[in-house]
Amino acid sequence: MRRKSLSGAACPIARTLDVIGDWWSLLIVRDALRGMRRFSEFEKSLGVSKNILTRRLHALVRQGILETAPAADGSAYREYRLTAKGRSLFQVLVALGQWGHENAAAPAGSRMIMVDREHRRPVRKLEVRASDGRLLGPGETMMVRIGELAGASNTNQG
Fold it and tell me: CATH 1.10.10.10 residue ranges in the chain?
């Protein structure tokens, strides 16, 4: 079954899902954020077939989330490195992990939580705040076209 492209959607959430909306892509980005760079590292970590991994890596490169570069060790291999666009998915993965920690039961003995590397303390839950600092909940936000936004020239959202 072919997926419908959401690349032309007005909603930025839909357009984002068109780029990274399958689990393999997000897991590849997760592993890249952990420092993995080689095809074999992704393959071993994910347990995914070579053909699926190849397609996902090529798509992530095509979307500008990963780039290929010569291996740092000087070997003939190529490495996959996150671009700034790819690194900016960090907050998305943190939000997914925090949601999963609270809402998706983990097998006994395998629960994990994200911690600050320096102090080894749990990371605070991500929050959505208004420009004036107020904490916002789901019923307190909405999507509007930027041209309809009062003071639209002062926003950098797309």
Answer: 12-87
List all residues 6 or more positions away from 119 whose beta carbon is below 8 Å from its beta carbon. Answer: none
- Residues 46/39, Cβ–Cβ less than 8 Å: no
User: Position 113: which residue type?
Assistant: I
Helix (H, G, I), strand (E, B) or coil at 84: helix
What Rg do the C-alpha atoms of the chain give, in angstroms? 19
pLDDT category, 151, cuts 50, 70, 90? Answer: low
Quote the crossing angle between the two packed helices 23-33 and 12-20, to the nearest 10°.
80
The pLDDT tens digits for 55-91 are 999 999 999 999 999 988 888 889 999 999 999 999 9
pLDDT at res. 143: 86
Q: What CATH code is assigned to 12-87?
A: 1.10.10.10
